[in-house]
Amino acid sequence: MQLLDGKYVSEKLKVEIAEEAAKILQKTGRQPHLVAVLVGHDGGSETYVASKMKNCEKVGFKSTLVRYEDDVTEDELLKKVEELNADADIDGIIVQLPLPKHIDPEKVTERIDHRKDVDGFHPVNLGRMQRNLPSFIPATPYGITLMLKEYGIDTVGKHCVVVGRSNIVGSPMSILMARNTTPGNCTVTICHSRTPDIKSITLQADILIVAIGKKNFITADMVKDGVVVVDVGMNRETSALTKSGYKLYGDVDFENVAPKSSWITPVPGGVGLMTIIGLLKNTLASANKEVY
Ligand code: GUN
Fold it and tell me: Is 166 annotated as a binding residue?
């Protein structure tokens, strides 16, 4: 078993991103600029957004956090998005999900100018991705492809099983792995909550990507020997034993699945760190006008 080490790959790619940002600053006199909009005080969202902002500083990007309380109206939020769309100093806009129930996330996502949609959630970017055209690719799937590439994982003709069909991970991941790209060219099966006998399918996986949001969902009896496992799970449990007050668990029973795997991502220290890289690379591409 070998680790797909998110810490190692993300640190290496951050050096490259910082070099690119420095070039942009030298050439244009400005830094790539990411704006994050955060509504409310969800613990996970607070952590993720803080990490996104911190990593922007680390690589020499400008970052701005726009905060609202839970009671912000949908109209207020949409107006803010339009204001950010029109601001020529901004390269990337993300609105952290989930949003409170009275706000339609689809409406907000579609209001973001697709040319600044560095989350890659806008239908224009998803459609362009599916057609293999230049687009912003959702950060977590993008980060996973960068990790597979870094370790030279051969995906051509392999059976990739994606567990989970979310807009953020499972669905775009399945498109990327089926595309004629590197990594890609897989035969892809998507499993979800309505799939009967998931085990019979995961047992066929050469590459297993799990984004279902359930601790220890994938157990050792559900994988074959030599499988490549990518665990997207970020299940937080409160713990008095850690400084942050919580402990993070993946969707895969790492201890028992790892011995059967050829490659596997740890949690923490795997995919989570790569998500940030996907976001930074999209923001860089926007600042360089590489996509639009
Ligand atoms: N919530 C969970 N993951 C993400 C992400 O990648 N982007 C945004 N905006 N919200 C999220």
Answer: yes
Residue 119 annotated among the catalytic residues of the structure: yes
State whether 106 and 146 are in the same domain: no
> Is the shortest distance between the CB of 186 and ligand 1 below 6 Å?
no
What was the ipTM of the complex prediction? Answer: 0.96
Domain span including residue 170: 139-272
Please tell me if the CB atom of residue 230 comes closer than 6 angstroms to any atom of ligand 1. Answer: no
Residues 160 and 76 in one domain: no
96 is catalytic: yes
Q: How many domains does the chain have?
A: 2
Those residues whose C-beta lies under 8 Å from the C-beta of residue 101, and which sit 6 or more positions away, are: none
Residue 66 in domain: yes
Span from the CA of 167 to the centroid of ligand 1 (angstroms) = 10
In a domain, 127, yes or no: no
Quick check: CB of 198 below 6 Å from ligand 1? no
The strand pair at 235-238 and 246-249 is best described as antiparallel
Bridge partners of residue 159, in order along the sequence: 187
> How many whole angstroms from 221 Cα to the centroid of ligand 1?
31
- 94 and 186 inside one domain: no
Classify residue 286: in a domain, yes or no.
Answer: no
Task: Check which CATH number belongs to the domain holding 47 and give it.
Answer: 3.40.50.10860
Instruction: Please state, in angstroms and rounded to a whole number, the distance separating the CA atoms of residues 205 and 218.
Output: 12
Verify whether residue 26 is a known catalytic residue: no
**Residue 238 burial (CB < 10 Å; 0-12/13-18/19+)?**
exposed
From 65, 96, 232, 236, mutation site for ligand 1 pocket: most ligand atoms within 8 A of C-beta? 96
Residue 263 falls inside a structural domain? yes
DSSP 122: S
Q: Give, for all 292 residues of the chain, the pLDDT tens digit.
A: 999 999 999 999 999 999 999 999 999 999 999 999 999 999 999 999 999 999 999 999 999 999 999 999 999 999 999 999 999 999 999 999 999 999 999 999 999 999 999 999 999 999 999 999 999 999 999 999 999 999 999 999 999 999 999 999 999 999 999 999 999 999 999 999 999 999 999 999 999 999 999 999 999 999 999 999 999 999 999 988 888 888 999 999 999 999 999 999 999 999 999 999 999 999 999 999 999 9
Same domain for 93 and 172: no
- For residue 245, the CA-to-ligand 1 centroid distance in Å is 22
